[in-house]
TrEMBL record:
UniProt source species: Jiangella aurantiaca
InterPro entries per UniProt: GlcNAc_PI_deacetylase-related, LmbE-like_dom_sf
Molecular function in Gene Ontology: hydrolase activity, acting on carbon-nitrogen (but not peptide) bonds, in linear amides
Protein name: PIG-L family deacetylase
GO biological process, one term: glycoside metabolic process
Transmembrane segments: none
Gene3D superfamilies, sorted: LmbE-like
Keywords from the named record: Zinc
Database matches in PANTHER family: N-ACETYLGLUCOSAMINYL-PHOSPHATIDYLINOSITOL DE-N-ACETYLASE, N-ACETYLGLUCOSAMINYL-PHOSPHATIDYLINOSITOL DE-N-ACETYLASE-RELATED
Length: 249
């Protein structure tokens, strides 16, 4: 029983309170879908959280049978509001040009890895995180390219020569339901965010340009249902699911 209880508390308050978390998000709102509740919980417990937004650009959205332009200034304003709501320690935006947005798959991986690993203001070498959360691969080309770059940037190395991140996790996204076979997202660990579900949904609503009707899979209402479903998978009110890529505990 004692051993089982210890396993249940791997992501308990004591552990999370000591974490220095680095979240890498392809677009503004992906961090909210995937791990806003975990960010809020870690911050409330006294841990540190840093967020790197890789790309924000102008984008035409479908709306009522037509398209509507959402500017990168709008997306950045929404993102910054979410960062302040979640009380993160710092955040960085890497690319805001139209050429890069939604074309990370066209960027040489070496260049993207260099920024994430060493050159960025909040790079892995500079933040020296104890935990990194990265997007799971999906049908979105930016998510796929960033996932591959993050795997490279967090590769094992000699600890005396470069920082080795002990815990590397991929986070959920509403787009992941539309995948098949081995590509399907299968969480292998969960963080209980029952006390932070309302804050997660509030953060989603701050991404106002992305809010859609309740029936849409990425709406705030659907996000709440999905988060509660993750919770039911592990018998809590609400949870965020992750796949563990590395756990050096």
């Amino acid at each position: 029983m004692e051993c089982a209880q210890r396993r249940l508390n791997v992501f308990g308050d004591e552990f999370l309170s000591t974490q220095r978390l680095l979240v890498i998000t392809p677009h503004a709102d992906d961090e909210t879908y995937g791990c806003a509740g975990s960010i809020a919980r870690i911050k409330a417990l006294g841990g540190e959280v840093y967020v790197v937004l890789v790309t924000a650009g102008d984008l035409a959205h479908y709306e009522d049978g037509a398209t509507k332009l959402v500017t990168h200034e709008t997306r950045l304003g929404e993102f910054e509001s979410v960062m302040r709501l979640l009380k993160v320690d710092d955040w960085e935006v890497l690319f805001t040009d139209a050429k890069t947005h939604l074309t990370l798959d066209m960027m040489p991986r070496k260049e993207l890895v260099r920024v994430l690993e060493a050159d960025g203001r909040l790079s892995i070498d500079r933040v020296r995180p104890t935990m990194v959360m990265i997007p799971a691969p999906s049908y979105n080309q930016d998510h796929e390219a960033l996932f591959r770059a993050c795997v490279t940037a967090t590769r094992p190395g000699v600890p005396s020569q470069r920082h080795l991140v002990p815990l590397v996790l991929t986070y959920d996204n509403t787009s992941l339901f539309w995948s098949f076979g081995q590509d399907r997202f299968r969480p292998t660990c969960y963080i209980d965010i029952s006390a932070y579900l309302d804050l997660k949904i509030q953060a989603m609503r701050l991404h106002a340009s992305q809010v859609r009707p309740p029936i849409y899979h990425g709406s705030p209402e659907s996000l709440e249902l999905a988060t509660r479903l993750r919770g039911r998978e592990v018998s809590v009110e609400a949870a965020e699911g992750f796949e563990v890529l590395r756990a050096l505990l």
